[in-house]
């Protein structure tokens, strides 16, 4: 992976984590990058940022509203890659697809 791709992943991840900490501070159990961001195929300016975010409990209505705000704020920056991820609970991880 080239330096530009690594820098873009780092910036996008810091932005996403900052938004999560600001809008859903008690909800997130873990955030894991998957796909091209970790397998070396990420292309700066072209790839999306794939992730799996695990909640520590099912989100409340207010937390779902916070997710909406989070995605709008993240998406308002055209320099960041598009997000391609899932938000799930530990029980959801255990369930079959």
Would you mind describing this structure in some detail?
Helices cover 46% and strands 21% of the residues. The chain has four helices and three strands, in the order αβαβαβα. The chain has helices at 3-23, 36-39, 61-75, 90-94, and strands at residues 28-34, 49-55, 83-88. A three-stranded mixed β-sheet has the order 1-2-3. Helix 1 (3-23) packs antiparallel against helix 3 (61-75). 14% of the residues are buried.
List the topology elements.
Layout: H1 3-23, E1 28-34, H2 36-39, E2 49-55, H3 61-75, E3 83-88, H4 90-94
Parallel strand pairs: 2-3
Antiparallel strand pairs: 1-2
Helix pairs in contact: 1-3
Structural features:
single chain; 97 residues; alpha+beta; 3-stranded mixed sheet
Strand content: 15-25%
Shape descriptor reads globular
Q: Give the proportion of residues in helices.
A: 40-55%
DSSP E strands, number:
3
């Amino acid at each position: 992976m080239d330096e530009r791709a690594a820098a873009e992943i780092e910036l996008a991840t810091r932005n996403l984590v900052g938004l999560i900490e600001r809008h859903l501070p008690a909800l997130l159990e873990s955030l894991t990058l998957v796909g091209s961001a970790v397998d070396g195929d990420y292309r700066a300016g072209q790839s999306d940022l794939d992730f799996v975010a695990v909640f520590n409990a099912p989100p409340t209505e207010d937390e779902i509203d916070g997710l909406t705000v989070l995605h709008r704020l993240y998406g308002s920056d055209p320099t960041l890659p598009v997000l391609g991820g899932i938000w799930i609970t530990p029980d959801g991880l255990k369930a079959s697809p």
